[in-house]
Amino acid sequence: MKSYLKFITCGSVDDGKSTLIGHMLYDAKLIYADQKRSLELDSKAGSRDGELDYSLLLDGLMAEREQGITIDVAYRYFNTEERSFIVADTPGHEQYTRNMAVGASFADLAIILVDATQGVLSQTKRHVYICSMMGIKHFVLAVNKMDLVSYSEDRFEDIKHDFLRLMATHTVHSLQALPVSATLGDNVTHRSLNMPWYKGDPLLTYLEKIDVSEDISQLGFVLPVQRVSRPNQRFRGFQGQIETGEIQTGSMITVLPSNESAKVKEIYVGDKQVKMAIAGQPVTLTLDREVDISRGSVLCVEKDLIASDLITATLLWMDDNELVTGRNYLIHVGTKTLPAIVMSIKYKVDIHTGAHIATDKLLKNEIGVVEISVSEPLVFDVFSHRRALGSLILVDRITHMTSACGAIERSMRRSTDVAYQASDITRELRATQKGQKPLTLWFTGLSGSGKSTLANEVEKRLVALGKHTMLLDGDNVRRGLNKNLGFEEADRVENIRRVAEVAKLMNEAGLIVLTSFISPYEEDRQNAKSIIGDAYIEIYVNTSLEICEKRDPKGLYKKARNGEILNFTGISSPYEVPRDPHLVTDSGTLSIEASTDQVMELILKIL
Amino acid sequence: MNELTHLDQLEAEAIFIMREVVAECEKPVMLYSIGKDSSVMLHLALKAFYPEKPPFPFLHIDTTWKFKEMIEFREKVKAKYGIEILVYTNQEGLKQGINPFDHGSSYTDIMKTEALKMALDHYGFTAAFGGGRRDEEKSRAKERIFSFRNAAHAWNPKNQRPEMWKLFNTKINKGESMRVFPLSNWTEKDIWQYIAQEKIEIVPLYFAKERPVLFRDGNIILVDDDRLKLRPGETIEMKKVRFRTLGCYPLTGGVESEADTLESITAEVLGAVSSERTSRVIDHEQAGSMEKRKREGYF
């Protein structure tokens, strides 16, 4: 049986990609008679001098035919006596880089077209970079339009030299440079008589011969579980495709990430029971004992995989919405999908110079190295070691767009790699994860003014909106954190300082904090404001002393009047009316609902 | 141990795709058109989930103009494998008497495209397997394996989701759906070779046999029942013909052939001078007709 070659063609606009493949199919008599007839008719109708326009064989979509360019990957299938081929014809425009990446992820070999009259362009560098990033290690440089440079060997050698210099930074297993003319057919299927100085094979012959098989025999057995099949109580089969290695009945396997072990009882390849299966085969395995396995578990023998919730990856951003750190995505690796957050962008890569550029966002078609935090440990491998478990996509949780694809470079939490720093997770990240803006709602007012009641109601509303909150008041602070403090002025100042520091920490954690303290001194409130920062929102619960004293829910005013409590605000100690609060609400005359509405209106404006 | 053959690789890819859909999509269905590609799909589905039966139903859109032998074959398959085959017809179109003779391309729109959309909505399927192959037609050559459809079942060729490696994005919102093409990378030749290798049963119409036909607009049309009215000058002749694709009999042209075994059919395909879709009458009507149909929700 003949082997397969999947390859991609890439080049800049008008380099002649579609023409090259079209000409190859035509010359090798690999198109049907009706396709040939329609090509000849279409070419005559077109404006290009009635010559055959081979690109018409490939440019499929109407929009492309109208614009004369390729906008999406088109797959072509052909075979010769020697080999079967699938070619991904991909767009050259920078705005369609992601479509090129789709084709590259599929291919084992890339034909990079360079226009002989133009030489290596910045687009050429981008194409090589993406092919390499997507895992291609076999390259053909096709220097096209040689007829327009008088079939000059010097010109060809110059371009080849530039290209080799460009390839120096990439992993390359094979590379061949070919001078061609896609329009005229030089070195496409036949050796060109116009370039006797070129001694190699023409393109088609080269493609028939090149060996692109990867040496993955060294890698151990790995099976990412696609699904668990339970047709009845007696049968429990684990279905998936073997990515590397092989497996036999009786072998001991380990399940990751749970680390449980079991022996392989039966192996099915399709509907046939076998003793052994190899990489690439779709199998159903049964085991000798019950272990916890579900979709996304990885079965392996050697345990040469990594499980971590923090990874470093190179991403190609493909979404119109830019990458913003802290936003939630779904990460898909192997057969596992988990919520994940891009925590930071270490840098983006200028693919024309290779330079690393500091940035806080990635735009469509940009490449960057990022750190990703996953909701639970993910089983993976580095891309260069085992592509099947080292490649990833990120899916937007709202639009469901495939926002990025990428290659995992390493884990940030291997024993040898303890570079993880707490500061990587910022206040904004924690808040974004909770889908809110951290605030401290500082309720101030006399004892009995209704601060706590109001704070309570506001908190209920916030929780109903799905917000994450915390209420700090005398009850939960005075009894613990501040139980060593009395009611002297110095202690009251310290009480407020501690409350402000705790509120700040909770804001750092992403929470919305509500504090309910009399906090009578303007100076203390200013101090709290400077500790808490912009998140500080002051709400003055303005209820008259008269009403407070009438309410006197805890009997404190009475005790103060009787002299049983010293330094009681409003009686024996002053309350300094806030100078510039965000909101004044009169709980003496308004209903609790009306006051709550006022506060919510203010908060929703800020949130 | 030997490396996998080209057909082994195609089979493995299709099985991987089917398992992904069943694991990830809420309510999948497999479109079953009774043709050879559907026979291959069914065969792959039986393998993919073995010893479990395919964990989804099959759906046949019956225009009421299918070849009689196709319907017989469908019933036979259903009984043989004990699978669920849902049959759906656009009753509205049927009542209005929409037929392939009087209504041209709107017949296909109403009885096939519309009917399919109605059936998918009726049962609430979120993912539908189709047997489409990229080698069939230029717009198919660009379609993803997991092809996203909006709530109106429309395909937007200019904004397809990127599809990388084997990492298929199956996420959709309510009302949206996926068309999934496990045979994307197969060619017509691969299909025939696989049918031969796996001894897959197919509708006898694929094999050459003496059949009553007439010649109309350059196509050979089988006279399958008396709804086919002769035009002046047309006569019914007995010819040894076979069909490269199967659909509605008045819209499916046969080819004169002596190939009555799988070997001889494969040999004919290998040396074919016409691509497969030339025998589909609708594709000829206008340039880019398939792309238009697909945008509107045709498979």
Account of the protein in words:
The complex is a heterodimer of chains A (607) and B (299). Chain A has 16 helices and 30 strands. Chain A is α+β, with helices and mostly antiparallel strands and 607 residues long. In chain A, strands 7, 8, 9, 11, 12, 13, 15 and 16 form an 8-stranded antiparallel beta sheet that branches. In chain A, helix 10 (451-464) crosses helix 16 (592-606) and helix 12 (489-508) packs parallel to helix 13 (522-532). Chain B folds into 2 domains: 6-190 and 288-296, Rossmann fold, CATH 3.40.50; 196-284, no CATH class. Chain B has helices spanning 6-24, 36-49, 68-81, 91-95, 104-123, 188-198, 262-270, 289-296, and strands spanning 28-31, 58-61, 85-88, 127-129, 146-149, 177-180, 209-216, 219-222, 237-242, 255-256. In chain B, the strands form 2 sheets. Chain B has a 6-stranded mixed beta sheet with strand order 3-2-1-4-6-5. In chain B, strands 8-7-9-10 form a 4-stranded antiparallel beta sheet, with no helix packed on it. In chain B, helix 1 crosses helix 2. Chain B is globular, with a radius of gyration of 19 Å. Classes of the chains: A alpha+beta (607), B alpha/beta (299). Chains A and B meet through helix 2, helix 3, strand 2, helix 4 and strand 9 of A and helix 1 and helix 2 of B.
